[in-house]
Amino acid sequence: MERLELKAMGKINLGLDVLEKRENGYHDVRMVMQTVYLYDQIALTKRRKPGISVEANLFFLPVNESNLAYQAAKLLTDEFGIEEGVHIALDKRIPVSAGMAGGSADAAAVLYGMNRMFGLGLSESELQERGVKLGADVPYCIMRGTVLAEGIGEKLTPLAQCPRCHVLLARPPVNVSTKLVYDRFDSLPGCAHPDIDGIIEGLNGQDIGKIASCMGNVLEHVTIREYPVIEEIKRVMKAGGALNAMMSGSGPTVFGLFGDRETAKAAADRIKELKLAKQVYVTTMHRARRK
After folding, report:
1. Is 161 within 8 Å of 206 (Cβ atoms)?
2. 8 Å CB contact between 152 and 133
3. 252 preceded by cis ω (within 30°)?
4. Nearest-CA neighbor of 129 among 158, 154, 102, 101?
5. What is the phi/psi pair of residue 236, to 5°?
6. Active site residue 238
7. Is the pLDDT of residue 288 over 90?
8. In this structure, what are the phi and psi dihedrals at residue 214, rounded to the nearest 5 degrees?
9. Catalytic member of 11, 74, 92, 234
10. Are 105 and 139 in contact (CB under 8 A)?
11. Strands 155-158 and 216-217
12. DSSP H or E stretch at residue 266
C-alpha cells in the first residue's frame, strides 16, 4: 500500500461535565462525545527514504514535530522500527483550536493509516493505548460515534447512536486557550452540572428532544464570560429553531441541533448576516459502525 486517503472526523460534546482536578494537573471529566460529518482530508504516501514530512493547506499550521499528525507517525515509526518514510498531506476543514478535536482527529487518522499501510497488526484498543500518549481526545477519535468518555477522556463506553438530525456549527473569530479555561474553572464556586445521565436516557430511547433538553457544558460558565459572542450565537440558533444550542469542548465553536436542514440553513444564514462567525457549516451526525 503506497498511498492511503483518510477522513479525520470532527466531534462535538452533547454533554461535558468536569468532576475534579488530579494532582498531575489533568481533570476528570464525564462527557458524551459525538462525531459529526465535518472532516479533514489526510493523504499518507509511503517514501523509500526514512523520515516524516508534513504539508498543510493552512499557512499557520506547524508542519514539524509540534504537529499531532507528525507525532502520531513518529510514535509508530520509532516503536516498530519502520525504515521507510511517510509524507502526510493535511487538507484542514475542521475549524482549528475550536473545541472540535481537529488535531486529535488528524493524529487518530494517522495512527489508523500507518497501522494499515505498514501492516503493524494493531487492534483498535491497542491504537487507543498509543493515542492517549498524544492527547486525551485521540482514543475517542479512533473509536468515533456516540460515546461516554470518562477519566481524562480516555475511558470510553459506546452508547446508543444519536437519532438522525441536522447540526449547525459556527466558530466565532475568537481564540480560546483550553488551559486558561480549565484554570479559571478551578477557581469558580460550585457550578450547575449538566444532566449526562439524561442525555444517555434520551439516546437509549432515541428521543432527540430529550437529548437536546439535557445538553449542557459546564465550561460555558468560564468561556462565555470571556467571549459573549458565544452566548449570542446560541441565542440566534435557538431563535432560529434549534432544539438546543451549546458550546463544544472549551470553545469557541457553538453547535445547534435541528430537525430539518432548511431550518438549520436559515439559522446559518442569519449568523453570517450578523457577522457572528465566518466558519459556518450545516452537517449531520456521523454514525460509526460497531463491530
Report:
1. no
2. no
3. yes
4. 154
5. -65, -40
6. no
7. no
8. -95, -5
9. 11
10. no
11. unpaired
12. helix 261-273
**Cβ-Cβ contacts under 8 Å for 3 (sequence gap 6 or more):** 43, 44, 45, 46
Sole residue written with cell 493523504: 43
What is the structure's pLDDT at 291? 55
pTM, to two decimals: 0.94
What one-character DSSP code corresponds to residue 291? -
Tell how far CA 65 is from the center of its chain: 21
User: What are the pLDDT digits (tens) for 262-285?
Assistant: 999 999 999 999 999 989 999 999
**Count of residues making up the chain:** 291
Tell me, what DSSP letter sits at residue 191?
Answer: -
Burial code (b: 16+ CB inside 10 Å, e: under 16) for 196-222 equals: bebbbebbeeeebebbbebbbbbbbbb
62-84 pLDDT, tens per residue?
999 999 999 999 999 999 999 99
Q: Which of 176, 171, 167 is nearest to 94 (CA)?
A: 171
> Would you call 103 helix, strand, or coil by DSSP?
helix
Q: Which of 74, 106, 137, 234 is catalytic?
A: 137
Q: Can you tell me which residue has the cell 470553545? A: 251
Which pLDDT tens digit goes with each residue over 121-149? Answer: 999 999 999 999 999 999 999 999 999 99
Residue that is written with C-alpha cell 465566518 in the block: 278
